[in-house]
Amino acid sequence: MAAFLLLKVSFPYKQTTKMMKFTPLTLVEEVKEQICTREGIENPESFGLFCTTGNGFWLEDKQPIFGYELWNDKTVEFKKNIFRNLNIVYLGELYTVPIDEILSVSKQIPIITRNLGITNYLNFVFVYQGRFLNENKNFFEQEIEDIDKAEIILKKDIPLSVKKIEIDANKKKKKKDEIISNPIFQKPLHVALTRGEKVLEVPTILTKPFEYVEKFGMDVEGIYRKSGGKNTIEKLKDLFDKSDDFNFQELVSSPHDATGVFKLYLRELPEPPLTWELYDKFIEADEIPENWERVKQLRRLVYSLPTPNFNAVKCICEHMFKVSQYSAQNQMGISNLAMLMGPNLLRSPDESMSAVVTDTRHQYSICATLISEYEYMFYNKEKSFYPPFAKVVYEFQASEKGELTIKVGEIIEVVKSDDSGWWVARGPNKKQGLIPSSYVEIVPDYIPPPRVKRKQVQGKQSKKQHIQSQIQILKDSLNEELKIKSELQTEKKELESILKEIHDSIQQEIQLTIKIENLIKAKHGDDILK
């Protein structure tokens, strides 16, 4: 080992560079102290050594300078440590990470991933509220609102531009006159985003059925619960496996055909949209007792999904919410839709019966939350998990039908508010009506006391309705199986009839052949047949 190590040290604030000599085993913190002494700088602990090679990194104080292999004209910058703690979410876990205020995002990814124990930082990206951070800017140039409290997602992802390059490469291998076939059923979700020359944000196997249902099927009873025509669904499946370029509406006989091909695609995905990697995290999040923390953790996990999965789940949940708004007509509320969608969106990698039984309620619960809170989950619309409450400051006596009498000091629930000067409110006696908005003051963060008796009654009713709903879904499932069994029996009879016709035809041909041979024998003798 050399007795001394020459280190090229840059001083950005002076715009100068100097060659300095240190013993190889000198610790980085000791190097900093010696530099400060030579340059007349106070507070060496507020400075750091930053290697500009590659993506750049800070030298750690307790490491010897020799370990960084800083020869061959490699430069280190001697500058102030400018760090701020930011909230980084990785795989649903929240970390407080020191972030350099100056370095670009691309240069910080290797540092942050290494601090989190991630060995390979390739294809990792930062996402804030659904949008990718610009890798060429630092964190503080990204228009992140209240950045010290914001949660920034770190996840592994393949940008769509990379997928487009893969498409172009595959196309070059094909002949010009060859029809490009791109099967999507029983393939990973992202495969459905690359159709021909297009790169989609959401697969057409989702958007086309959803558009059809929203146009023709929102008030159809049992939508998504009842099955469509088997032959039509199989035909649609074959078409989607070849191309997106066909008239979906002309081929669909009913909204149940549209929902049927979507459900088939979802069932046949090799990995569910909420991914197996995050499966246990989703289950753990659903077990959090506090509703607010539970929903918040679910949102962290949703944003940790790969971009194709995030966009697909967002599209599905928004559509299901729209369908649930017609539950009075279609009998498909959020709970019913969640029971149908849950096992397909979040499927356990462990297919044992015990795992299925244990996790089924979580699948329903998580899916119901994603649907009911889709604006908060996917569009970052903050909401209170309690309705706004107001305190009455002036007494108001109802004088017309539809108005509500309120007394000074009462706490009332605001059901609907606008700029008209009249709000819809619900009083302590649960009566609802109009009140003058200027007679009350909103009470921020008010949480109403629990109403035990009322809650118990509602619990019994909702449990009964839940059981009835499950029974209905099981009945529909049984009817669907009986229908399929009936169709199979019909096909079996048809096949048996065809086989019988073939058998009879063969027998007739045999008999005819024998008759011809006998006629020939009678006329010419046996020798002519030899």
UniProtKB/TrEMBL annotation:
GO terms for biological process: signal transduction. Residues 187-378 form the Rho-GAP domain. The keyword Transport does not apply. It comes from the Eukaryota. Keywords: Coiled coil, GTPase activation, SH3 domain. Gene3D superfamilies: Phosphatidylinositol 3-kinase Catalytic Subunit, Chain A, domain 1 (3.10.20.90), Rho GTPase activation protein (1.10.555.10), SH3 Domains (2.30.30.40). One of its GO terms (molecular function) is GTPase activator activity. The keyword Transmembrane helix does not apply. Residues 478-508 form a coiled coil. GO terms for cellular component: cytoplasm. Residues 385-445 form the SH3 domain. PANTHER family: RHO GTPASE ACTIVATING PROTEIN AT 16F, ISOFORM E-RELATED, RHO/RAC/CDC GTPASE-ACTIVATING PROTEIN. This is Rho/rac/cdc gtpase-activating protein. It comes from Anaeramoeba ignava (Anaerobic marine amoeba).
